[in-house]
Design a protein that fits this description.
Elements: H1 29-40, E1 44-49, H2 55-72, E2 78-84, H3 87-101, E3 108-112, E4 115-116, E5 123-127, H4 128-131, H5 135-144, E6 148-154, E7 182-188, H6 196-204, E8 207-211, H7 213-218, E9 224-232, H8 236-259, H9 268-281, H10 285-306, H11 309-321, E10 328-331, H12 335-348, E11 353-356, H13 362-373, E12 379-382, E13 397-400, H14 407-415, E14 426-434, H15 448-451, E15 457-463, E16 468-470, H16 472-485
Helix pairs in contact: 1-2, 2-3, 8-10, 9-10
Pfam family, one: ResIII
Keywords: ATP-binding, Helicase, Hydrolase, Nucleotide-binding
Domain Helicase C-terminal: 317-466
């Protein structure tokens, strides 16, 4: 059975004339419309755009348009400050500024870890961990010297936490209203975050534009794609362990919820954040003990789900059915599982497999991404380190071997395989889940209505013992037919 639908239509051409200080690519219609709206909001706002549709190019278009306006008005020169959540994005932005805007390298400063350029260059790129205690001061110094300042917050959902939001401490010193020389652009495929209204909106502006999967698919901007929800089974021993842990967890949760009824109704993310805080800081030893017990049991149960033997077996059999030329990313949650899959695939597809996760050094991670980009390898096994932000080109197939319940993570992972190229017009995403667990049974349940009628979604089952893939409805018909023939 072939599980990979292949197409060959070309992606849209955005190449424009290379003009110094101007974008070398022609903007999509949605980007032009978005920038019009951004300018109408005095150059402030958050943009919610599906991964792969061109958020970075949009930001460069905003810089170019703002520069032109300031030049027409004989206004102060523009200082551009970009903040990113991870180091690899810093390098990616620096390269894109040079390639797409023609910015000289010596005009670009970086501020991260041991390498901190003086914040006097026209373009400064900060990693948020290094920016928390200085970005607000640096920005305010530029602003108070009379410069127009533009802040670009890439993956802005990261910056609403108490620590990261310190980068916005300057905002109370900025003049309100349209006469201000402060401009801001927040970028994310999933901008909604805790304290969104409290932290992000005052510093970046309201959400001014949304461009989702449906719009990008209809405009032929991202690859068309198919989703396969693949149901797996526990072994008897795994199922028994899962049930025992579930019973223990249920009993402890019962006691905790009677003590803390306010926890009812919280989202999963907020619920576990509260538990971690209580386990760490509560003066009530019984309450902190209950919180720790829930966290430990939940982690142990999740371990059983993530380490289920059927996952690795299913990944192996999928790859043996996928065309040998296909480029594949395999997403995991635990490094241990990723390493096990990597070791197996190295034996089966020698010289074709690489790995990428947070315990690798930066040089090794850069090397494997370069090899994948250059097609020296075609299979990339990764963990959360590759979930967002990184431009991974020309990927045909994504396999989510393990996943959290986070809608944000799933959208970001889907986005990793949807960047168009002339060779990649249709992508496939396989979502593996254990049917007898608390895992979601649909990859994109949150946006299924948006995608209805646009993409094919197929539910399959994988049988570990026979190492075969089954379609439940088809198998039911076969079984009935065999029963009738008897």
């Amino acid at each position: 059975m072939s599980l990979l639908y292949e197409g060959n239509s070309e992606g849209p051409d955005r190449t424009g004339p290379a003009v110094g200080g101007q974008l070398k690519k022609k903007l999509f219609a949605w980007q032009e419309e978005c920038l019009d709206i951004w300018m109408q909001h005095q150059g402030r706002g958050i943009v919610n755009v599906v991964t792969g549709a061109g958020k970075t190019i949009l930001a460069l278009g905003a810089i170019a348009r703002l520069e032109k306006q300031l030049l027409r008005e004989n206004a102060a020169g523009l200082k551009v400050i970009i903040v990113v959540p991870q180091v690899f994005l810093l390098q990616q932005w620096a390269q894109t500024l040079q390639d797409e805007l023609g910015i000289a390298r010596d005009q670009i400063g970086i501020y991260s870890g041991a390498h901190k350029d003086l914040p006097t260059r026209k373009y400064m790129i900060y990693v948020v961990n290094s920016a928390r205690h200085c970005l607000a001061r640096h920005l305010l110094e530029d602003y108070q010297r009379g410069a127009a300042v533009m802040l670009i917050a890439d993956e802005c959902h990261h910056y609403s936490s108490p620590e990261n939001s310190r980068i916005f401490d300057f905002i109370s010193h900025i003049s309100p209203g349209s006469s201000s020389r402060y401009y801001a652009l927040g970028l994310s495929a999933t901008p909604q975050a805790p304290r969104f209204d409290e932290k992000l909106v005052p510093a970046l502006g309201v959400q001014i534009y949304k461009y989702g999967f449906a719009e990008a698919l209809n405009a032929n901007i991202i690859s068309s794609f198919s989703i396969f929800n693949l149901k797996l089974k526990f072994t008897p021993d795994e199922e028994q362990e899962y049930l025992e842990l579930s019973e223990q967890l249920s009993r402890v949760l019962d006691v905790l919820m009677r003590r803390c009824p306010y926890l009812n109704g919280l989202s999963s993310q907020h619920f576990f954040a509260c538990l971690e805080e209580m386990a760490r800081e509560s003066d009530d030893s019984a309450l902190s003990g209950l919180s720790r017990a829930v966290l430990i049991l939940a982690h142990q149960r999740k371990d059983v789900v993530y380490k289920a033997r059927a996952r690795i077996s299913c990944v192996q059999n999928l790859l043996q059915r996928i065309p040998a030329a296909a480029k594949v990313i395999i997403f995991n949650e635990r490094i241990e599982t990723a390493e096990a899959i990597y070791a197996l695939l190295q034996r089966l597809f020698s010289g074709q497999v690489g790995r990428y996760h947070s315990e690798m050094d930066e040089r090794s991670k850069k090397r494997v991404l370069r090899r994948y980009s250059n097609s020296e390898i075609r299979i990339l096994v990764t963990c959360r380190a590759l979930d967002e932000g990184l431009n991974v080109p020309a990927t045909d197939v994504g396999i989510i071997a393990c996943s959290t319940r986070s809608s944000r993570q799933r959208i970001q992972r889907l986005g990793r395989i949807l960047r168009r190229s002339g060779e990649n017009s249709h992508a496939c995403l396989y979502y593996l889940y254990i049917g007898a667990s608390n895992e979601e049974q649909e990859l994109m349940a949150d946006i299924s209505q948006e995608l209805a009628g646009l993409i094919p979604v197929l539910d399959l089952e994988y049988d570990h013992e026979s190492q075969s893939f089954l379609h439940p409805s088809y198998q039911l018909l076969v079984d009935r037919g065999e029963g009738n023939s008897g």
